[in-house]
Amino acid sequence: MRIGIVGTENTHVDHIIGHLNVHEAGGDARVVALSGGRSRRNDTLASTGGIEKIVDEPTGLLGLVDAVIVADRHGAHHRDQATPFLAEGLPVFVDKPLACTVEDAQAMIDTALAHDAPLTSSSALRWIPDTDALVARTARGGQPHVVVTSGPADPDGEYGGIFFYGIHPVDVALRLAPGEISDVRTDTTDTAVTVSFTAGGTRVLVNFVKPNDTHQIPFHGMALTQDTVVEQTLTLDAHYCVPGLEAFLEMARTGRPPIGYGDLLRPIEVLESVATALRTQSADPGVR
Question: What is the pLDDT of residues 76-124, one digit of tens each?
Fold first, then answer.
């Protein structure tokens, strides 16, 4: 399987190339081409992974690859980057977040459906062993009544603000809490943003704590069922990108997305609501 990568500044790309090309741990899958033109970064990645093709524009990958990973750090670019490949029927993994608006996310899904092109996107935290353990322990108590997740996120970050890191705790929370999103509320302090909403029959709270130059809180999840409280610190090991990458490879081989398209939209719906509330509060500091 020949894989092309769009957006190579993300450190996730190092993990992907290491897993597939250096360690040859993804079966027949190899990264064979990068977009973005010649640069010190791309030359280093190509040398590390034995990658011969570097093209200037994403569409230059067409005809060279069987599947595509869009890894640009800024979700606002993902629709334009992913659409040409979806329109050609290629499997596409969009690294987190899928998009920075529901409109862009829905447009990618519509293109995928129109051209029978499997599409997926997720936070790496969705698939790590600690999240699997949290989900399994919660399931023993039945559908959770309340889910609380927390993690670092900078509302003023240069890569789409709250979307860039905020996707991590939101995606974990929504893995635990299926169902339609409603009653979304955003509250802020000088150091944190909290969004609360209902997902199906579960009340969800997600805490985004602003990091500083030296510290950030760990990712954490908690679920309350009828008679249990389950909590788990979500730790990223050296191979944290591998489970999500393997889910993509399985999708590329079978044509079956690992996450339903409705569930691709839900975290973007939540985060767009948060981003809208933050813009409103910025314009009128008296609004909280």
Answer: 999 999 999 999 999 999 999 999 999 999 999 999 999 999 999 999 9
Strand partners, 223: 147, 230
Alpha carbon distances (Å) from 269 to 125, 161, 274: 19, 15, 9
- Which position has the token pair 């609360």? 196
| DSSP state string for the chain | -EEEEE---STHHHHHHIIIIIS--STT-EEEEEES-S-HHHHHHHHHHT--EEESSGGGGTTT-SEEEE--S-GGGHHHHHHHHHHTT--EEEESPS-SSHHHHHHHHHHHHHTT--EEEE-GGGGSHHHHHHHHHHHTT-S-SEEEEEEE--TT-TTTTHHHHHHHHHHHHHHHS-S-EEEEEEEE-SSEEEEEEEETTEEEEEEEE---SS--PPEEEEEE-SS-EEEEEE---TTTTHHHHHHHHHHHHHS--SS-HHHHHHHHHHHHHHHHHHHHHHH-TT--
Q: Report the pLDDT value the prediction gives residue 282, as an integer from 0 to 100.
A: 74
Residue 287 pLDDT level (bands cut at 50, 70, 90): low
- φ, ψ (nearest 5 deg) of residue 207: -105, 125
Token pair for residue 164? 């860039």
* Tens of pLDDT, residues 142-161: 999 999 999 999 999 999 99
Give me the pLDDT at residue 281, please: 84
Phi then psi dihedrals of residue 148, to 5 deg: -130, 125
Using the predicted structure, report yes or no on whether residue 178 has a pLDDT greater than 70.
Answer: yes
pTM of the entire predicted model: 0.95
